[in-house]
């Protein structure tokens, strides 16, 4: 028999090398897409977190600014102004009242700590219904819940947001106040009683204080929101500028701060220039009780350097200049480093808030 051999040929070295090159190119392209996609996802997460933080901080501050006041007539904590320590529902703390700021502002506000009521309801006021007594009758559960919230002798309480007084005695089922309401005051059953407290908002850049975050928003020294870098506040008032075109007394219209003296009354138009950024708010007529609007601006940033979108392990760089808010230019701050500053994304949110700010 004749055997017929069939030739079996393998791959040549050139073909093998070509296949390896093609495979390497395809895998490299795929890895590039995966890496870029992963970095884009991380960037989106960082952007979303910064956006969420700046909104959370604004909502927190705005809520307390809206509640500031409650007709407090007695000094509440550190919420006072001037050498006489006059009670104030809102106490602005400009970083540099006489010029450009070199850091964040602060603000102190009188706000209610809680509504009394053992089951989440409101207390019943019986002895005070006619306004002839300084004793508030409450249930034992109300007294217990208010004590848990910090009620002690010397605390200031507000009845329905229309009358306030310091507490001189805490009984088992009653509170004794330092003063009585006007004889004409009427407080129906179910009127809520609030404990008033003075809260301060500030910014810390201390990672130890902020629990590892590069900066944070503090409420009475307690970290509330991570990544908050700057807080700037400006105030519009009614009755704090008696020069024309304003009227000598409050008239329900925001004072015109930027019209020249001598302009006819009513000629001014409310605009950005009517917000005051530099002032101590401790000298008449520019006192806190004249403030009617608060413009709050918050700057939030990443807690870590932003990642670039390329496949190289490098941080992203923001070529824009410093975020200048109100009269604060970060480039003038002590320790400002433009290189590290540009490595973090920032979000700025501004909101104008009308205050309750009832006069004492």
Structure report:
This protein is elongated. Strand 10 and strand 11 form a beta hairpin. Helix content is 19%, strand content 24%. The longest helix is centred in the N-terminal third of the chain and has 55 residues. It has 360 residues and is α+β, with helices and mostly antiparallel strands. The mean pLDDT is 83. Strands 3, 4, 5, 6, 7, 8, 9, 10 and 11 form a nine-stranded antiparallel sheet that branches. The protein has three helices and 14 strands.
Q: Strand tally, please? A: 14
Estimate percent helicity: 10-25%
Give the topology string: H per helix, E per strand. HEEEEEHEEEEEEEEHE
- Secondary-structure-derived class: alpha+beta
Instruction: Output mean pLDDT.
Output: 83
Q: Give Rg in angstroms.
A: 31 Å
Measure the end-to-end span.
Answer: 122 Å
The count of helical stretches stands at 3
Task: Characterize the largest beta sheet: strand count, sense, and whether it forms a barrel.
Answer: 9 strands, antiparallel
Strand content: 15-25%
Q: Unreliable segments (pLDDT under 50, ≥5 consecutive)?
A: none
Shape: elongated
